[in-house]
Input
Amino acid sequence: MSVREAEALVQRLLNPATKTETKAKKPNRDLLRLQDELSEAMGTKVTIKAGNKGAGKLVIEYTSHDHLDEIIAKLK
Output
């Protein structure tokens, strides 16, 4: 091992690289089915983002204030 290789090894050990990318999870088929059903029922794109321990986010997209009013009416 050369001096430069030893220096590089020490630097890697002292300053480990942090993972900036999270592992992409394989989409759950049940969530995808629910996402499609909600999208069709709402008449707009719906995204379900599963989180940890059963929590997550439900994102409903709209294109205008009128479209938002229609979505809200459907939710009521």
Notes: The helical segments are 3-14, 29-42, 65-75.
